Amino acid sequence: MWSRIPEQTRWTLQVLAWWTAVLLFVGVPFLSERSGHVSAQPFAGGTHANAWSAVAVSSSGVSTAFDTIGCRAGVTTVFGNTGGASTLTVQYSQNNATFYSSAVNTGSVSGNFGLSFAHGARYVRLISSAAVTITATIACK
């Protein structure tokens, strides 16, 4: 059967099979839309205290919005510390202008907090129910 295939086609199939084996062996890298570079690891977004960094937040104060484009797993995590009792609610937006509060929140928390949630929105931020000092990170992978 193999001998009936033209030589040029056989050569092309052999090269294709070789590259397929190489990619399966080393793993197919993910492409980050944010940076345009190729990485061997899935894109991970979020730096320490990117939402609030020891900020005295007013009641109904909002954090910096986090752009989730490039996040592969579809799960975002929010964690940090509050200097007093407050409920932090996750807000979603598709255009980074109009935000909508979700049902995802920390409950009344004083001290360390953390929660993870799945969503389909491009932008995520937090809103505080009380005037407290907050350090918070929003991250995804």
Overview of the molecule:
With 141 residues, this protein is mainly β. The chain folds into two domains: 2-39; 52-140, Sandwich (Jelly Rolls). Helix content is 14%, strand content 46%. It is built from one helix and eight strands; from the N terminus they run αββββββββ. It has one helix at 7-26, and strands at 30-31, 38-39, 52-57, 66-67, 75-93, 100-118, 123-128, 132-140. The strands form two sheets. Strands 3, 4, 5, 6, 7 and 8 form a six-stranded antiparallel sheet that branches. The protein has a two-stranded antiparallel sheet with strand order 1-2. Mean pLDDT is 82; it is low at 28-41.
In a few lines, what is going on in this structure?
The protein is mainly beta and 141 residues long. It contains one helix and eight strands; from the N terminus they run αββββββββ.
List keywords for this structure.
single chain; 141 residues; mainly beta; Jelly Rolls; 2 domains; six-stranded antiparallel sheet; two-stranded antiparallel sheet; 8 strands; rod-shaped
Whole-number count of domains: 2
From the alpha carbons, calculate the radius of gyration and give it in angstroms. 23 Å
What level of helicity do the residues show? 10-25%
- CATH fold label of the largest domain: Jelly Rolls
Query: Treating each run of at least 4 consecutive H or I residues as one helix, how many helices?
Result: 1
Give the quaternary arrangement of the chains.
single chain
Order of helices and strands: HEEEEEEEE
User: What's the total count of β strands?
Assistant: 8
What is the end-to-end distance?
47 Å
CATH class of the largest domain: Mainly Beta
Overall average pLDDT: 82
State the major sheet. 6 strands, antiparallel
Rough outline: rod-shaped
What percentage of amino acids are in beta strands?
over 45%
Structural class: mainly beta
What is the annotated CATH architecture of the largest domain? Sandwich
Point out poorly predicted stretches.
Answer: 28-41
